[in-house]
Amino acid sequence: MSKKVAIIGAGIAGLSAGCYLRMNGYDAEIFELHDKPGGVCTSWTRKGYTFDGCIHWLVGTRDGSSFNKAWRELGALPGPKIVNHEEFIRIEDKTGKALIVYNDPDRLERHLKELSAVDSTVIEELCKDMRKLQKIRTPLGTPQNRQERLEFLKMVPGLFRLTMFYLRKRKVTMERFSGRFKDPFLREAWGRLFDMPDFPMMWMLMNLAWISAGDAGYPQGGSLEFARSIERRYLSLGGKVSYQSRVKEITVEGARATGIRLEDGTVHDADVVISAADGHSTIFDMLGGRFVNDEIRGMYDNWSLFTPLVQLSLGVSRDMSDEPHSVRFPLEKPLVVGGRSCDDLGYMLFNFDPTLAPAGKSAMVIYLQTEYEYWETLYADRDKYKAEKARLADEVIGILDRRWPGFKDDVEVVDVATPVTYVRYTANWRGSYEGWLLDKQNSRYMLTGLKKTLPGLEGFYMIGQWLMPGGGLPPAALHGREVTQMICKKDSRKFTSTQI
Ligand SMILES: Cc1cc2nc3c(=O)[nH]c(=O)nc-3n(C[C@H](O)[C@H](O)[C@H](O)COP(=O)(O)OP(=O)(O)OC[C@H]3O[C@@H](n4cnc5c(N)ncnc54)[C@H](O)[C@@H]3O)c2cc1C
């Protein structure tokens, strides 16, 4: 009889684990608190507009790249049309002057030099690094067979260069890198690129390199459609999924996980339990904090989380197809967003995906960093909570109306998601939509991730964004593959994967 595996969470990590376990003959069942798959990889439709909550770039969209193989195994690619943008983002100053982060390093180099010839050395180094990183291929976990071992051998020189690069650059943060530009505009604009001063510049560079290599496009149809394609693959492999099934407890006998107990009291026994859910609630609620050591306690006490977001989505009855898709611009006066003051505003126009808005209309998303406590407290008084969401939306629409006169009258749908929304629909701790912020404290885990087991507990694994500082879709998908390899190894079974 095949072993039964209970998976908590139908985000990308949980779905991926389900797919690979089914490919290897395990009896897999996913329990998900929401009524749909995807977790934070999601989108929602309001009056004909679809608002996307996740994918800006998906590493692995180029045929033949390392991650492409995983997405193909998971049934997510090929499928949707992939959009490769020419620009990553535009950062404007008060006069409208813009830093355009082109995805092509040659074009980027020319543009940056036009902005500041005195910074040629830094600019050349930046673009050279992008070109170098473009060429490096990384393995999909530990090689499992002869073919994968041969592939891995070919990657060794590149991996060596990547490790050396990491050792040289690991301490360079976005803030430190921006400080190297002599030109005040470039220094200030580059600093606003990510709104996370401690974020490692190397990680930013790797993303730019993947994007510029055409290996990190946007899958048309949006994030929920992307998640649904993996769910379809899982179901076609014979996997089971129970929605609206919140796991309250991971049952343990002795030192072994034996299954899960849902909120309604139902118990589901399993030979192996995998949590692909929020890290904090898995360790401290579902397992009652019994399987931790100082290292784990230290992480949850001290590591920084991604600053939570308010996502303001607008359905606009106007054709904005000629506008750049991603822009940040400074505000005339600061905007207060749940206890935080914002000096600039970034928007993303989904004018590159015609499936997200009716013809001639535009779906737009604005992300605003905010404080979790503010919204958690406010949510206790639902009227005040709604009023604050409405006030914020009005203010932002007013700002955009000054940028595009008449904009206000064209707004026909307004949707505001707060950090509380993220918690309600995905249970991510304190609304941290990507888990741990990648910074100086944890950048050493950037290439390896954290341990997928807990001390003193057998038959249990954790996967997903809380096991990889910085989060992201590729690690989530990869974890499903890796945990299946670990389970197969323990059972002395040969790991296999298939593509459709
Ligand atoms: C705004 C935004 C933009 C992003 N942009 C990108 C991007 O461009 N590229 C990229 O690679 N990544 C991006 N990410 C990050 C990426 O989406 C996530 O890191 C990844 O989807 C995490 O997947 P996961 O399965 O690990 O976690 P989650 O998506 O959080 O999934 C966990 C699942 O577990 C469920 N769950 C939790 N608790 C329980 C419980 N007790 N019982 C049952 N179910 C439970 C949740 O409901 C959820 O479905 C972005 C994220 C956001 C929010």
Verbal overview:
There is one protein chain. 37% of the residues lie in helices and 22% in strands. By secondary structure, the chain is α/β, with parallel strands linked by helices. The chain has 3 domains: 4-45 and 55-63 and 69-77 and 220-304 and 437-490, FAD/NAD(P)-binding domain, CATH 3.50.50.60; 85-213, no CATH class; 309-426. The strands form 5 sheets. A 7-stranded mixed sheet has the order 8-7-16-17-18-15-19, sandwiched between helices. The chain has a 5-stranded parallel sheet with strand order 10-2-1-14-20, covered by helices on one side. A 3-stranded antiparallel sheet has the order 5-9-6. Strand 7 (87-92) and strand 8 form a beta hairpin. It starts with a strand and ends in a 10-residue tail after the last helix. The model has no long low-confidence stretch (mean pLDDT 94). Bound molecules: flavin-adenine dinucleotide. Flavin-adenine dinucleotide (FAD) binds at residues 8-14, 31-34, 39-41, 53-58, 246-247, 276-278, 281, 426-428, 433-434, 464-465, 471-474, 476.
